Amino acid sequence: MAFLKTKERSKERFSLLLLDLEEFYFEQHTAQQVTSSSSKERKIRGSFKVCSKSVIFDPEDIAEPILKIPLRDCKKIEVVEKKGNPFNETKPSSISILCGQVYYIKESNVIAPYRIERGEKRLTFQLEVWSKTEDVVQTLLQLHRASCLEKLGDQTAMIAANLQSRLARSSFDKNSFQSVAEKPHMECEVEMVTPLVSNPGHVCITDENLYFQPLNGYPVIQIKLHRIRRIYKRRHGLRPLGLEVFCTENDSCSDVYLKFYNTADRDEIYYYIATFLENHVTEHTAESYMMQWQRGHLSNYQYLLHLNNLADRSCNDLSQYPIFPWVIADYTSTQLDLTNAATFRDLSKPVGALNKDRLERLLTRYRGMPEPCFMYGSHYSSPGYVLFYLVRVAPEHMLCLQNGRYDHADRMFNSIAETWKNCLEGATDFKELIPEFYGSDSAFLENKLSIDLGRRQNGSSVCDVVFPPWASDASDFLQKNKIALESQYVSEHLHEWIDLVFGFKQRGSEAVAAHNVFHPLTYEGGIDCDSIEDPDQRIAMLTQILEFGQTPKQLFTTPHPQRITPRFHNITRSPSINTTLSEFSSASPSEDSSFEDLTEESKKLAWANMGNLKALSSHKIHKEVITGIAVTRDGGSIFSTSQDSTLKMFSTELKEFQRSMSFSNMALSSCLMLPDDKTVLCSSWDNNVYFYSIPYGRRQDTLMGHDDAVSEMCWHDNRLYTASWDSTVKVWQHASDDASSHTRSQLQLLAEYEHDAGVNTIGLNPAGTLLVTGCKDGTATIWDTSSYGLLQQVHCHSGTIHHIAFSPDSRHVLSVAADSCLKVIDVQTGMVISSVKAEEEQRCFCWDGSTVLSGGQSGNLLLWDLLSNTVTKRIPGHSGAVTAMWMNEQRTTVITGGEDKQIIFWKSQC
After folding, report:
1. Which end of the chain is more exposed for a tag (fewer CB within 10 A), N or C?
2. Nearest 5°: phi and psi at 212?
3. At CB < 8 A and 24+ separation, what contacts does 440-443 make?
4. DSSP alpha helices (H): ranges in 609-733?
5. Contact at 8 Å (CB) between 432 and 324?
6. Is-contact 319 546, C-beta < 8 A?
7. What is the predicted pLDDT for the residue at 502?
C-alpha cells in the first residue's frame, strides 16, 4: 500500500502528522501535566514535545487525550517556582502556559476529528529533569515570538534560523555506527521527508552504511549500501534538493527520502552511492523502459510506475504522488466486457475533455481569459485528491491536511461510479487515479479501522466504498481493474495517455490542441520561487503550488510509440549441434530435419546461447582489412571482399581459399549474394558495382552508377539498392525474366534518394517495404520503398554511422557510429528510445531487436542486452577492429572479418 508500509507503522500514538504543515519537531522531555480539582492535585505522566509552532503533550495513559497547544494562541509562558518551607527540600519549578485554545486529539485513543476547547485556559507541566525548565521556557518564548509575527515570511525566517542553529550545534552521533571499522565519507544537515511531514536531522554516509539521525531523537535509520538497488534525484518544493533511496527493484515506496539544504550536498552523496554501487545499480532511462514495455518485458502497470518514478513522482510527496489513468468507463453494467471498446475510457483525451459539453464551457472561458490562461482550474493530481482516495487507511494524513477535520461526508470517496460521474460532469473535478487502484491491497476501499467518517445527507454512514455491479467485492474490483489495465485495448492506446501526462502533449501548442492546459504554476519551470523577493509572496506562492498539485516532469518530447503486442514462448533446449564448418549455411537443406522449422522459439534459444560463441578456426586470406562477407545457400562457399581490392572464395569443405578476383586497383567495400545463389555483387571505391558469376568464375558485368565510392548494397524482390558517398542511394529494377542473368543491361534506374552527406551504410526491413540509411554526418533516415518518400530523419550520432539495420519485426532501427554510441530509433515516431555509450567504437553487428552481437574496435565481440544497456559477454576475437559480420538464419553460426585481415568462423555451443 504505497507510502503506508505496515512494517514501519508505529504503535506509538504520537505522530509527526499531529504537527501543522511545514512545522518541525525539535525536542521532547519526560514531564507530568499537573491538574487540580478542589484540593486534590493530579499528575499525568507523558512526553512534553517542543515543536516550531506548538507544544504537544502525549500522555503515557492512552485513555488520556493528546494535547496540542498552538503557540500563536498562547498569552503567557512562564516558569513558576513553587513556594515551600525554606527549611524543607526545594520544590520543583513548573512551566505554566496560559492559552486561548487547546486541541484534544485521539480522545479515548480513537482517531477522530480534533476537539477544540476555546477560552482562556492555564496548563501546568513539570519536567522530570527540573534543571531544564528555564531553558525550555526560553525556547518556547522565542518560538512564541516567531509565531506571533504578522508576516508569514518573517515567521518562517525566524523558525528556519532556530532550526539551522540547532543543526549547527549538533552532529551525527558516531556511536550509532554498526562497526568501529566504518569510515565516514560525508555528513550534512538534511530533512527526512514522509507524506506531509519533514523531519530535520543529520545524514552520515560511510563506506558501509547510509545513516539518518533525527534532530528530535527519533530512532536512527540505517541502510546498508550493498542493499541499495535504486537512487533518484528529486525536485522537492520545485527545487533540486531531493534524494530517494530504494532497496528493492519494484516496490513503489522508497526506504528513505531525504531533502538537502543545497544541491551540492545532494549531488555529492548521490554520486558517492552511485560509484559505490557501480555493479549493482543500472541507470535506466525513459527510453530504455519504453523499449522493454514495447516488447512485452514490462507490464502496463510496471511501465507506468517506472515513468512516474523518472518524472519525480514519489509516494513520499503527496503533491507529486504517482498518477495512473482511469481506464474503465463502464460502472453500471452487471458484466464487464473487456472485448468492447465502449467499456474503456478514451485515453487520447485528458479527463477534462471527456465530456464534450463541459469542455465547450471550459473552452469558452479559456478563450476569454487574460494571460496566464488555462483550461482547467484544478489539477488531475494533488494532495487532497490522493487522500480523498486513501482516507480509510490514512485518516491521520487527512486530519493533518485539513486542520484536524475530515471533509464533508457527501464529498468523501463513497462510490466508484459516483466518483467517475463527478470526474465527467463536475465543473472543477478532473482527477485521475493512483497506483492503488491497480494493486492487490484493497484496504483503502474498506473501512477496516471502523473510522467515523460522518453521515451523508441521506442518513447513511460513510463506510466501505460502493463498487460497480460487475464487482462482487473490493478484491474482485481490483482484480478486474488490473485485468483492464493490461487488456489489449489499453495496451494499444496507453501511449496516447502517456503523451498527455509525460509526453509531447503536456506543453505548448500540442497541449492546447489536445485540450490539456493547466495553470502555469503546476508546470516545472513555470515560476522561479527564489526570484520572488517578497518572502510572504514567495511562501504563499510555494504553498499554493504544493497544495494545488504539480504536473510531472516531461519525459518525452516526440510522440510515444505504440506497444507491440507481446508473444511469449516456452523455450526448450534442442539437442547439441555438430560444429563442423559445413553447417555454416544461410538456409539449411530441407533434408536436414534439425532446421526444418525456423520458429521463434529456436531463434530465441539461439540468441540465448549467443554468449557461448566459440571460435572454430581463423584464416588469413586477405592483405588488407576485410569489408564484406557473403555465403552460398548450402554454406559450402564463403566470399569476402577487402580493401586489398580482391574478392576471395573460401571452401568450407576443403577448409582453404580457392579463388581470388580483382576488379580494379581500388578497395572493395562490400559484397552481396543474390537469391539465385550464382552471383556475387561487389561494391567498390571506384564508384562501380561488379557482378561476379560463381559458375563461370569471372566478372559478368559492371554497373557504373555513382559519382563517388559505392559503400554498401541491398537486394530485395529484384531490386538493387546502392549507397554511395556521393550522398545518394539509387534503386535499380531488374527487368529480365532470366533469374540467372543479373547484368547491367537488365538493371533500370527507378529512383534516387538524396541525402545531405555521404551515405555509408544501408539496410532493408525483412519485407522490403522500408529502407534505412546511415550517413557520414551521423544522420539516420528511414524511407518508404514503395512511394520513395521520407518517413523519419534523425540526427542521432556525432560521427559517421558505420552500420545500421532494422529489427526483425521492423519496429526499430539500431545504428553504431564513430561516436562509440549504439542508438535505437523507433520507426513509428522517429524517437531515439535507447542510447548507450560503449567503451570503444562498434563497427558492425547482428541483432534480434533486444540482444546485439557487435564487433568492436579492439577486435572483441560484445554481446549487449539493450533492455538494460549492458554488455553481458565479451568474447576475444580479432587483433584489430571487427569490420564485417555475417550470421546464418538459424542464428547458430557467425563469420567475422577484421582489420587483422583474418576471417574467423564461430559456432554457438548449446
Report:
1. C
2. -130, 125
3. 440/478, 441/1, 442/473, 442/474, 442/475, 442/477, 442/478, 443/1, 443/392, 443/393
4. none
5. yes
6. yes
7. 97
Distance CA 805, CA 812 (A): 9
Residues 70/97, Cβ–Cβ less than 8 Å: no
Q: Is omega for the bond preceding 372 within 30 degrees of 0, making it cis?
A: yes
Q: 792 to each of 399, 760, 773, 775, 901, how far by Cα in Å? A: 54, 18, 11, 14, 37
How far apart are the C-alpha atoms of 491 and 725, rounded to whole Å?
42
Question: Cell 513539570, residue?
Answer: 126
At 109, the amino acid letter reads: N
Q: Amino acid identity, residue 345?
A: R
Q: Pseudo-torsion of CA 412, 414, 415, 419, nearest 10°?
A: 0
Integer Cα distance of 590 and 472 in angstroms: 56
**Sign of the alpha-carbon torsion through 437, 315, 349, 292:** negative
Please write the tens of the pLDDT for every residue from 161-177: 999 999 999 999 998 89
- Residue position matching grid coordinates 472561458: 365
**pTM of the predicted model as reported, rounded to 2 decimal places:** 0.76
- Write the pLDDT tens digit of every residue in 337-379: 999 999 999 999 999 999 999 999 999 999 998 888 999 989 9
Counting every residue written for the chain, the total comes to: 910
**Distance (Å, rounded) from C-alpha 449 to C-alpha 426?**
30
What cell was used for 811? Answer: 519496429
Determine the residue type at 341: A
Spatial CA neighbour of 172 closest among 194, 192, 188:
188
Per-residue pLDDT reduced to its tens digit, 842-863? 999 999 988 999 999 999 999 9
Residue 667 makes CB contacts below 8 A (sequence gap 6+) with: 624, 627, 642, 643, 644, 645, 684, 685
Span 511-547, pLDDT tens digits: 999 999 998 888 887 777 767 777 777 777 777 777 7
**What is the Cα–Cα distance from 646 to 660, expressed in whole angstroms?**
6
Paired residues of 48 in beta bridges: 29, 57
Q: pLDDT at position 654, please?
A: 78
Please give the backbone phi and psi of residue 84, each rounded to the nearest 5 degrees, phi first.
-150, -175
* Helix ranges restricted to H, 178-281: 263-276
Chain-centroid distance of CA 145 in Å reads 46
Residue 5 has pLDDT above 70, yes or no: no
Higher pLDDT, 388 or 12: 388
Distance CA 450, CA 461 (A): 11
- Residue 440: DSSP 8-state: S
The secondary structure element, H or E, covering residue 361 is helix 356-367
Euclidean distance between CA atoms 353 and 347, whole angstroms = 11
Q: Model confidence over 866-900: pLDDT tens digits?
A: 877 889 999 999 999 999 999 998 888 999 999 99
- Per-residue pLDDT band for 575 (boundaries 50, 70, 90) equals very low
Distance CA 860, CA 873 (A): 10
- Give the span between the Cα atoms of 515 and 494, in whole angstroms: 18
**For residues 43-76, b (16+ Cβ closer than 10 Å) or e, as one string?**
ebebbbbbbbbbbbbbbeeeebbbbbbbbbbbee
Residue 473 grid cell: 467485492
What are the grid coordinates assigned to 697, written together?
568464375
d(CA 406, CA 392): 11
- Helix-, strand-, coil-residue percentages of the chain, each rounded to 5: 25, 35, 45
CA–CA separation, 840 vs 692, rounded Å? 36
